[in-house]
Amino acid sequence: MPRIPLLIIALFFMTGGIAHFVLAEFFVASMPDYLGYHWELVIISGVFEILGAVGILVPKTRLFSGYGLIALCVAVYPANINMALHPELFPDLTTAFLYGRLPFQLLFIGFIWWAIADERRQKKVTV
Questions:
Q1: What is the Cβ-side half-sphere exposure of residue 69, based on CA atoms within 13 angstroms?
Q2: DSSP 87
């Protein structure tokens, strides 16, 4: 039975991954102008969110998936910064919410790191 933090992570990323397909235009609007292929990057990140959500629940893929989800959080951080810098593009969200997401995402990276601590320790012992 997966630990509760792993279930939280899986639910968070599964929901986000599905949202990348259902609300693709919203995510495309969050992309910084300097990046190309906005739609493609939104779809790719959605796929990886879903894969990571499933993978974090499977013991054999948990460590790899945890690292992958951390990398994904880092990769999408510029889009979150872009959203905070351009709140006029997101009238349904408050500026405070958009800026609040920035430290939350850093905390969530730490939460993922903490949630895969057992797997990280096991990997050090068996290497």
A1: 35
A2: G
Query: What is the domain partition of the chain in residue ranges?
Result: 4-126
Which tokens go with 71? 């990398």
Task: Output the CA–CA distances (angstroms, integers) from residue 78 to 51, 64, 65, 82, in the order listed.
Answer: 21, 23, 21, 6
For residue 50, what are the CA distances in angstroms to 11, 43, 81, 114? 9, 11, 23, 20
Tell me the pLDDT tens digit for each residue of 10-63: 999 999 999 999 999 999 999 999 999 999 999 999 999 999 999 999 999 999
Whole-structure pTM value: 0.91
Tokens at 40, concatenated: 């493609």
Any idea what DSSP says for residue 31?
A: S
Alpha helical stretches, state H, 30-116: 38-55, 62-85, 95-115
